[in-house]
Amino acid sequence: MTPATVLAAGLTTGLAAEKKSAEVTDWAARAGWLVGLALFIALVYWLMREGWKWRGTLQGDLPELLTAPEEPGEAKLTMSGRYHGSTTAGQWLDRIVAHGLGTRSRVELTLSEAGLDVVRPGATDFFVPVAQLREARLDKGIAGKVLTEGGLLVVTWAHGERLIDSGFRSDRAAEHTEWVEALNHMINKTEGAR
Predict the structure, then answer these.
(1) What's the rounded Cα separation, in Å, for the pair 173 and 181?
(2) CA of 179: how far to CAs of 28, 154, 174, in Å?
(3) Is 33 helix (H, G, I), strand (E, B) or coil?
(4) To the nearest 10°, the Cα dihedral for 145, 149, 151, 155?
(5) Which of 5, 77, 125, 179 could make an SS bond with 111 (beta carbons 3.0 to 4.6 A apart)?
(6) Considering only CA atoms, which of 131, 135, 126 is closest in space to residue 185?
(7) Cα–Cα distance for residue pair 98/91, rounded to 1 Å
(8) Other C-beta atoms within 10 Å of 12: how many?
(9) Long-range contacts from 9-12, C-beta under 8 angstroms, 24+ separation
(10) β-pair type (105-112, 115-119)
């Protein structure tokens, strides 16, 4: 054998030794990880749901929501938009979930001499008599929803022994200022009459 033949035979043997078959996927381990991940996600979801129900139980002292009277009077303002939730007044992260107040939804607001009618398709409607209205303001956030400064109409109202902030966003945000002025004017007029 010539030196070139020995060198060629050595390279061929070296290359053959380096070649291995591809690793076989361990499907049992992969399936185990996927099942474990699915169980973890289900557990987190269940804990969140139980927390929501527990919060509703803690707020069980909140009276039932009022419904609009038969004759609320002529509508001063109307607005369509989104209802973003209700919180304890002054505590924008303390969401109120009792009686469906924590459910986000579309909303149709109507302001009349009798008060504020909140109609929510797919959720519980409620009515706030003018005597229970306390304040209206523009704000930037409420319970998990943060917008630009002044992007949210927040109405403070009394229900039972609680003061509640409810957040609304109009489909036309330019309406918010008009709503704040009208609500605060009604509130001041009502307080002056007491």
Answers:
(1) 14
(2) 61, 10, 10
(3) helix
(4) 80
(5) 77
(6) 135
(7) 16
(8) 10
(9) none
(10) antiparallel
Amino acid code (one letter) for 156: T
Each residue's pLDDT tens digit, 12-64: 555 555 666 667 778 888 899 999 999 999 999 999 888 878 877 777 778 88
91 residue type, one letter = Q
Q: Which residue is associated with the tokens 């505590």?
A: 91
Which residues, 6+ apart, have CB-to-CB distance to 69 below 8 Å? 114, 127
Q: Look over the chain and give the mean of its residue pLDDT values, rounded to a whole number.
A: 84
Note whether 99 and 61 are within 8 A (CB): no
> 12: helix, coil or strand?
helix
Structure tokens that stand for 93 in this block? 């992260």
- Amino acid identity at 43: L
